[in-house]
Amino acid sequence: MAKEDSSDTPVARARAAVGSTGIRRWLSRTARALTGSTLTLTDYDPRRHDRLVTFDGLDGYEEVDRYWVNTPFAFISINYDPEEAEQLYHVVEPQLTEFENELLERLFEDIRGPLLYREDVADDPEDALRSELRSRLEEYGVDIAEETFYRLFYYLYRSFQGYGRLDPLMHDPHIEDISCDGPNLPVFVYHDEYTDIETSVSYKPDDLANFVIQLAQRSGRHVSVSDPVVSTTLPDGSRIELALGEEVTPRGSAFTIRKYADEPFTPIDLLEYGTVSRRLLAFIWLAIESNKSLIFAGGTAAGKTTSMNAMSMFIPPRAKVLTIEDTRELSLYHDNWLSSVTRERMGDSDITMYDLLRSALRHRPEYILVGEVRGEEAITLFQAMNTGHTTFSTMHADSVQTVINRLENDPINVPRPMVTSLDVLWVQVLGRSGGERVRRAKTVAEIEGIDQRTGELDYSTAYEWNPDADSFLESNSALLEEIRKDRGSSQSELLQELRDRQRFLEYLQNERITDYRRFTAMVNKYYADPDEVMARIEDRNATVEP
Q: Would you say the pTM of this structure is higher than 0.85?
């Protein structure tokens, strides 16, 4: 038998690859791997450990903001380019050495399998990954600092339980939308302070295609070249639109994520952002309590669903509420609330919004909230209005007249006499004021009936946004007079009720009660005993005045 060429042994190949210094490190690691090692780990403490992430700024940019999104692993640096007059959303994560990168690649392969078979992963995935990572490192016999352990843990957790390189953006509460238009292009986000802004995140073609497939799988859906477009919802409620390959998106795979807010906006949040005035809120609150039906209209990203969700927090506490949506967006803190979501693309077993709405009427709800009306379900919705159910819904439209035209024409086709069962139309816009993009309730109109002379639908404007002064103009309300008669109140009593509710909302705003649970609890207290609540507010105001 021929003698083995000594220059082609594994050791020789390793020596040739890493040199004399590197081979000593390689042999040392190999020896430790044979005997194993023991890692001593403590919880990360910035007072005792080195920083896991560092950032000295970007050349040619001025940093204007910096904040954590996943302490202590990732933060965001907002930078301004004075030459281009543009801002950049820069993601800062732990930097790995060459050795740490090699270690991470091996860990990906060695940990993935065992994690699938661990019974405790579902209960505490973070603890399960930490345990598995520690076992593998001790098995390798590597000698690493605790900081290296946490850096490796971050990237493994980001890959297995998070959203990969998009994970910091998904953790950022300031981001509403994430948009990737193709490979080798920067991901863009809509930031609640910096609006549309380019990020430092991008994908190579294969990485992007794989990520789109992963997003679909995470949502329980399938995307392929034969079925390249998918609209679905992530487990956290975020809405996603996916496109795979170049069949429908010539530049390559793409995705858009409309993030789901864990903490929904309250009416106080809308006040803080200037979307509404206290007077307008008091009016809507009274209308909702009086079982008036509303439609919230607006263009894409105008915030119509957000406003509808916030206004629904005025629903009386014991009323039965039923919500119907294509994708889960509404979030209420209401004891008597039944939530339902459509199920599509399941062949003959599709459950549409029309199906859910017909079923909803058998549950005898007092308030029905429909995510968006766009087809045959609108007829059933207006039938529900005519039979005494209070309904809220949203529509894509930028004016009162556009809403009416859409309701009366294809594909919705609601008969004009049925449209008169609608009480209030709220039109919201994403506009500009003071050089900034703002969301405002542009028009709040009241449906008054059919003009006997012209046969057209009559409506009047109760509130209108003045963009020049960024204020709301108020007109006489026929609906308030109708509410007054229904309540059996005098004009002075009704006006006093509106003033009380404005003071109540002012108190909540001053106390910064923006948590939707606390806000709903306070509204429920007002419903239970308004006189006592107002007396306490008056007493509190008296004690703080000089």
A: no
